[in-house]
Amino acid sequence: MTSTIRKASGRSLARLLAVQALYQMEISGIDVNAVILEFLSERIGHEIEGIEYEQADQGLFTELVRGVVSRQLEIDPLIARTVSADWALPRLDATLRALIRAGTYELMARKDTPVKVVLSEYIDIAHAFFPGDEPGFANGVLDKIARRLRPEAFDGQKDRC
């Protein structure tokens, strides 16, 4: 993970940690309440492996994790309709899947956050985890979802996808 994420705003850090928590839930099978408690009590604002992490927006972190879990039956079909048949949702890397789910939730539920901010934040997170094509893939998927969910944000813009 790059040092730019550690110096990020509390909201940016909340998004990064939400992706990590969603990943951890999927890989370990830990329940949503347990993962939130772990992150709030042991990770957010604490030193991890010699790195002092800044304080994240705990409210946003909690909302993102709970929101993805509670709306996953809406989120996953939306993502599945957006990715090509060659990239079915289960085939995606678990971290990439967590990232796209969190970004999709935020586009669905956080109308107060501009589309450009959501896209930029999650693409930055993708760059922190992936050196290859994954950030571009995540950008393409989230852009298509944003155009579907919030077309008013793209009024007058030509569809890039």
Spell out the blueprint of helices and strands.
Layout: H1 3-6, H2 10-28, H3 32-43, E1 47-48, E2 51-52, H4 58-70, H5 72-82, H6 94-109, H7 115-129, H8 134-149
Antiparallel strand pairs: 1-2
In short:
With 161 residues, the protein is mainly α.
Summary keywords:
mainly alpha; 8 helices; disordered N terminus; 2 strands; 161 residues; N-utilizing Substance Protein B Homolog, Chain A; 2% strand
The percentage of residues in β strands lies in under 5%
Estimate nothing, just give the exact number of structural domains.
1
Largest sheet: 2 strands, antiparallel
What is the second-level CATH architecture? Orthogonal Bundle
Spatial gap, N to C terminus: 29 Å
- Summarize model confidence as the mean pLDDT: 87
Question: What integer value in Å does the Rg equal?
Answer: 15 Å
Please give the number of β-strands. 2
Total number of helices: 8
Helix fraction bin: 55-70%
Low-confidence stretches: 1-6
At the first level of CATH, the class is Mainly Alpha
* CATH structural fold name: N-utilizing Substance Protein B Homolog, Chain A
Descriptive notes:
By secondary structure, the chain is mainly alpha-helical. It has one domain: N-utilizing Substance Protein B Homolog, Chain A (Orthogonal Bundle). Helix content is 66%, strand content 2%. It contains 8 helices and 2 strands; from the N terminus they run αααββααααα. A two-stranded antiparallel ribbon has the order 1-2. Strand 1 (47-48) and strand 2 (51-52) form a beta hairpin. Helix 2 (10-28) packs across helix 6 and helix 5 crosses helix 6. The protein is globular.
